[in-house]
UniProtKB/TrEMBL annotation:
It is an enzyme of class 1 (oxidoreductase). Coiled coil: none annotated. The lineage of its organism: Bacteria, Bacillati, Bacillota, Bacilli, Lactobacillales. The chain crosses the membrane at residues 437-456, 468-496, 508-532. Residues 5-327 form the FAD/NAD(P)-binding domain. It comes from the Bacteria. This is NADH:ubiquinone reductase (non-electrogenic). Signal peptide: none annotated. Keywords: FAD, Flavoprotein, Membrane, NAD, Oxidoreductase, Transmembrane, Transmembrane helix. GO terms for molecular function: NADH dehydrogenase (quinone) (non-electrogenic) activity. InterPro entries: FAD/NAD-bd_sf (IPR036188), FAD/NAD-binding_dom (IPR023753), NDH-2 (IPR045024). It catalyses: a quinone + NADH + H(+) = a quinol + NAD(+). Pfam families: Pyr_redox_2 (PF07992). The keyword Flavoprotein applies.
Amino acid sequence: MAEKNIVIVGAGFGGVFAAKTLSKKLKSHKEYNVILIDKHSYFTYMTELHEVASQRVTPKHVQEDLEHLFYQDKNVKLLTAEVNGIDKDAKIVKTTHGDIDYEKLILAVGGQSNDFGTPGVKEYGFELWSMEESLQIRNHIENIIGQGAAELDPAKREQLLTIAVVGSGFTGAELMGEFIEQRRVLAKTYKLDESEIKLVLLEASPSILNMLKDRNLADKAFKYMTDNGVDIRLGAMVTGVNEDGVIFKDNTTLPTKSLIWTAGVKAKSFISDWGFKYGRGGRIEADDYMRATLENDEPAKDIYVAGDTLSYVDEKTGPVPQTVEGAESAARAAANNILADLGFGKSKTFAEAVSYHGFAVSIGSQYTVASLMGLNFSGFFASIAKHGINLFFYSQIRSMYSIFHYLMDEFFRTENGRNPFKGAISRLGNVLWSTPLRIFLGLFWILAAVGQLGSLNDLFWQHGLLSFIEIITGAGILIGLMTWPLAAVSVILTVVAWSTNGFDLTHWFLILSSIAVMNGSGRGFGLDFYVVPLLQKLFGGLWYGKAKSVYDELDK
């Protein structure tokens, strides 16, 4: 049977969600291939770019290699290429790799920053809507604050130490929240007083976070930022940017070398001549079934739209927002209707597929305002909820790899206390100090097995299978080999000994010691230093494949 291609252009939230959905539903239909095309070989978690820009997390935290996401989805083929256009009559997608036939097509190419033609933004400012842009900001802020710390001229020093963000939407507010925390780190690094690093949030309207219906949440975010030294300027209409700073409508200026523009989003400009009907922000309009609308107002045959490429207004929920849930809902509707076209279900309108649970806006790692499932709240629990939303997305695309690394990067590998627990549970530390405890614990189990604990011998076993397990557990912990699982065995052995031979305070000591050495102590003068990375490479490759910078799986 001839193979048929369902082509998805764009590996953002909408594209990845659609690919996962179609892959699962078409798993038993070998005649269909899902081809996912993107100019990058990785998926970018766009809503976390502010964390990269402010050095809260490393760049790899928001990058998920597409091979890792789709290695187990054998009917998905990855292609790293740029799309140059579409031939609707011939049903061909034109790419830098060549022409690709499609049976069905989803356009989810994403968006880009919209500066509304403001002079100087691109020449003298920064934008935040791609990995590349976040890295530019990341490097610039570190360098410019260093320059400012060394500058002796008061006016130049103030200019270099001023960071301005234009736009108080989700992106602008979250970026400013991260800068609040980064300022503490930079001030310490460059021996500055925190107050010398000025943070200015510029908003043209009379209020911030204008997407929030509950203005009480916006007021809380406003108060949190001002309490932490942010200069919020409302009604500040930016009319230009030059090498000296920001120019306002009233001709006043703000001297700065660090202007980050977050005031708008539009569709990718290269889709503007693809022959569709375009709405606000250059987005492609769609009908109720997410079918792209042609210039003659007719729905395009076999072409669907999702993500920031989409312009659609639902009667009940309003315009589809440029959010993760907005992209997911459109992708869910598009994928469902493609399956219906192929004879695998019934068509659904966007209204039938939409699923909005709410939102959470993080103002740094330790404060968030949220509205979820009808509840409005803020602070610590809202911050935890924000992480829950991110983890929920990864669960929907069935990526335990992503969930594990997200938890590690956001909670256990954070520097400078930048997590909701203020660093209290961060694993970043010298595991060498737990090495003596690990060695003692290992020796204890060996001595217990051979009956060399004196009066404590009766609490454990010196014969049979359990004695053998004691020796294996002790020897492994002693040399730091597979320390984490053997420490878990140590806890189990202790509980069994407790229930079988009676309670002693020694049992509590063993349980707590076993938990303590689970912190990676096997890497401190232990074989885990060599074995764990080797196992991660071996088994990770078997399950997730090998990451590459470029994919061409059309012949797979």
